Amino acid sequence: FLKTELQYPGFIEFDHSHRRIITAAQSKTEYQFWEMCTYEPTWRSSNPAYKELRLSEEGVLFLEQPNKAWGMKFTLCDIDSGERLRTGIVDLVPDVRLLFVEYIYEILLVKQSECNFCSRDLVVKGNKSTVLMNTRDITPSTFFTSKETRRVFTFSCASINAWYCCPADRSLTHLYAIDFNVHLPVQYFHFSI
User: How does DSSP assign 54-102, residue by residue?
Assistant: First the structure.
């Protein structure tokens, strides 16, 4: 890392499941992937269109700046080699604020203001978005995943929602919600899975 210069809004992320370290130099729009054990660089991406990245078991998802009229371009790459696996566009509701985008267990989960969650399997070509009904009022501020149970928990000020990601068809199913009458910050809650 002696020749790596990072400054805000750049970052370093540790991906223990793939044994990778990712550095993001936003000033150069460069993402560098390193082997965690040897600190040797494995590959890099210098595409100035990439504004964010998400990691999942399937690889690295690069996201471009959303276009309010038609959607958001993405590129899915293999985390070990950087090989481009898939590119495409995630449809968005035009002129509606994007609140939440996460790549969890091969599923892209998208939440826009005043809309239901949409999930999309990015691994299977041609798979369209699925609207998760009755999720319009869920506006999470953060999430937590459990790889062992394939559960996803979304947290907001007033509720915790639990989801299950089915490995067979890569679908996301809402399991339950815990609603609170009092709005407490998320750090007041402790639970185990």
Answer: EEETTEEEEEEPPBTTTEEEEEEE-TTT--EEEEEEEE--TT--EEEEE
Residue 34 forms beta bridges with which residues? 21, 41
Strands 84-91 and 98-104: unpaired
pLDDT digits (tens, 9 = 90+) for 46-81: 888 898 888 887 789 999 988 877 889 999 999 999
- Closest listed residue to residue 109, CA positions, set 78, 45, 147, 63: 63
Q: Is 111 helix (H, G, I), strand (E, B) or coil?
A: strand
Prediction pTM value: 0.79
3-state helix, strand and coil shares in percent for the chain, rounded to the nearest 5: 0, 50, 45
d(CA 172, CA 160): 16
Both tokens of 159, joined, read: 């509720």
Q: Which amino acid is at 89?
A: I
- Residue 104: count other Cβ atoms within 10 Å of its Cβ: 19
Nearest residue to 5 via CA among 27, 20, 21: 27
Give 131's strand partners: 118
Average pLDDT value for the chain: 82
Contacts of 22 (CB under 8 A, 6+ apart): 12, 13, 14, 15, 31, 32, 33, 34, 53, 55, 60
